[in-house]
Amino acid sequence: MWLIVITTIALSCKPKTIEPEPIPPTPITPTPEIPPTNSIPIENCLTIGSNNSFIIQPDNTLWAAGYNFNGEAGTFVPAVNNQFKIIAGNIKTVVSGGNHSFIIKTDNSLWATGDNDNGQLGDGTTVRKYSFVKITDDVKKVVTGEFIHYLNSTGYEQLDYSLIIKTDNSLWACGNNLYGQFGDGTTTDKLSFTKIADDVQDVSTGVGCSFMIKTDNSLWAAGNNNYGHFGTGSTNHTSFVKITDNVKTVTPGDNGGHLLIIKTDNSLWGIGSNSKGQLGDGTTISQSDFIKITDNVRAAAAGIEYSLIVKTDNTLWATGVYLSGGSWWTPYSVGFTKIEDDVQAVVSESNYDNIGNHNTHWKSHSLIIKTDNTLWAAGSNYYGQLGDGTILDKQSFVKVADNVKEIAAGAYHSLIIKTDNSLWGTGDNHNGQLGDAIINHNFSFFKVFDDVKAMTYNWLNSFILKTDNSLWATGNNGYGQLGDGSTNYKSLFVKVADNVRSISTDGYSSLIIKTDNTLWATGHNDYDQLGDGTTTDKSNFIKIADNVKTLAVGYANTLIIKTDSTCWGTGSNFHGQLGNGTKTDKNSFIKIADKVIAVATNHQSFLIKADNTLWVTGFNSDGESISLTSTDITKFIKIADNVISVATLDNSFIVKTDNSLWAIGSNPDGKLGTGNTPYESSFVKVAENVKAVAPGEYHTIIKKTDNTFWATGYNYFGQLGDGTTINRSGFVKCNVP
Questions:
Q1: Cα distance between residue 61 and residue 92, in whole Å
Q2: Complete edge-to-edge strand list for the sheet that includes strand 728-734
Q3: Strand, helix or coil at 49?
Q4: Can you spell out the DSSP letters for 196-226?
Q5: % of the chain beyond a pLDDT of 70
Q6: Rounded Cα–Cα distance for residues 274 and 258 (Å)
Q7: What is the CA radius of gyration of the chain?
Q8: Contact between residue 730 and residue 670 where contact means Cβ atoms under 8 Å apart
Q9: Can you tell me the mean pLDDT for 28-46?
């Protein structure tokens, strides 16, 4: 039995173009997303992350995402690093500080990058680094500390420091030492790692303070002691002082005010600030000596003025207050209160957030899925995204739905499919994207449909395919792309076709394959992309072709594979993407290749032939899509072997027969997962063990052979589903229930 706890701003489990929000924080012009060909749907994606994230792949390569104003993601460009980039190999451990980062390689060498104003990298300088540089050898653990130092009326400064434990159990420190947190008897900053102590097995940092656990399990502290959480009064200590024995783990609070320890007998003890009950002893009295709180604790997480623990029976307990939405809340009692069962792990974060024109404040919300398939939510609820029937933020988890098996969340709305295949939605609906009649917000999950077996959606409209193979649609219909015989906007799902096997849409044109393998089309047709011999828009699905097995919709062009494995194309050919040797548009389907098993298209087109070779034609400006030349290709050329699937948008991904994932083309917001390079002019290997890839306009999600899900790219609204709104420049693992 287990539970995953998710803390997030917004989640997205399927790739989709960014939706317009009522008050967009930055100008974004969405482009319709092309559903990938031959990819498995990305389902049940929920996860959690933090400000700046790193992952270590099974091959020991390191990937990073998030802020990079100081080079902390290990890339050269000092800006927001919107993409994961492979930046080092043979990685064992990675640690992210305030604006700097460390890695420990498999040979135990320590490498660092990022901000270095206080000498916190330990390389003997205060020079900022934009790529990892080797610092020292024989390191087994590294931790970072950062805190705000207020300068009276002149503002504040962030101060950083770092500590390492070497393989001989010696403790070393560098960086800022304002409070004597190095424990070396001084308050002198260090630009290089300096030895502090021996026989150290673990180390942790608070706000201007450090804690070490020695090999005899004694706990020692040095530095800032303003809250009395050392148990030695409120005097700062520039040398380590012993504060207790038999300690297994130590957890300082986010604001440095309180401290939790788990002893070797799994008992929990606390000390320090307790004004909001964060120690969990049933009072709001601060403690100057360690007091025993409870027994049988295996993990602890300390927030600003709250604490969470997981007991050895996997129950989750909480105490204190949670700061969110600019108000002090007391969702938990003053004393640890059991809030959930079957908890495998708990992660707690407090992030300072400013979205759109809303006030700047601490803000987050949480979702959990229990083993009985119930959905629970807590936290920020401005758009009704918790689905509990209100727009009130929630101070504790509330149950919002039963029998949930799949979730697909946009920026401020969510859709779920229940175990009975019914579709439900909640949240923002100003574009009618939920499919109910209220063009505003919905504050509870409401039932939209029964018997749903598939759904596809983009920023303009949504389609669902029911178990009886009927197709239903809602949303924008300005070009007749819903296929209901009108160009009227729909705020309720309407039935538009029967006997449908699959659908592909770019938001403006829609094509379907029926169960008898006939191809039908509706919507925008300015480039003949419907293939009916005209450039006239259609508002009803009209029959286009017979014996169609697969289709792919691109930017005003369409490719199909017939049942005899021939490939045909129609529509825009401005870049030669039809591959017939010209750049002349076609208003009906023309045959372009034989022995084709898969297709993908937009400004360029890809074919996979029966021998698993990959062929391409079309757009090639600056050589970023196909080859090192900068000339568009008008006939298909072979570019790779051993390919089993391909997906393309403004860039392209292929999965090879060894399940490796490769990427090429433009790299907006890190969706290739190759870092912050603007484009890749040849295929670059970006992941192993991949069996499906689904790219959106600004982000990408993959499914690996072990059925784990990974994501990269733009994440302002949390559409990667990693529990943050931090952009990713490489693939980060999702927790999938």
A1: 9
A2: 690-695, 699-704, 709-713, 728-734
A3: coil
A4: EESSEEEEEE-SSEEEEEETT--EEEEE--T
A5: 66
A6: 7
A7: 28
A8: yes
A9: 29
Contact 584, 538 (CB under 8 A): no
Residues 118 and 145 sit within 8 Å (Cβ to Cβ)? no
Question: How is residue 681 written in tokens?
Answer: 């002019």
Q: So where are the chain's domains?
A: 247-350
Length of the chain: 737
Sheet holding 287-294, edge to edge: 247-252, 258-263, 268-272, 287-294
What are the distances in angstroms from CA 420 to CA 78, 400, 448, 464? Answer: 49, 17, 13, 15
Q: Is 426 helix (H, G, I), strand (E, B) or coil?
A: strand
Q: What is the pLDDT of residue 387?
A: 66
Contacts of 556 (CB under 8 A, 6+ apart): 509, 524, 526, 527, 529, 571, 572
Look at residues 251, 197, 259 and name the one whose alpha carbon lies nearest to residue 226. Answer: 259
C-alpha distances out from residue 48 to 67, 83, 315, 719, 730, Å: 17, 17, 20, 12, 16
DSSP, res 42: P
Ranking 280-289, 623-632, 684-693 by mean pLDDT, the lowest is 623-632
Residue type at position 663: A
DSSP 32: P
CA-angle at 480, arms to 475 and 484, nearest 5°: 75
* Residue 494: count of CB within 10 angstroms of its CB: 18
Q: For the chain, how long is the longest CA-to-CA vector?
A: 86
* Structure tokens that stand for 333 in this block: 């009692």
Global pTM reads 0.45
Complete edge-to-edge strand list for the sheet that includes strand 509-514:
500-505, 509-514, 519-523, 538-545
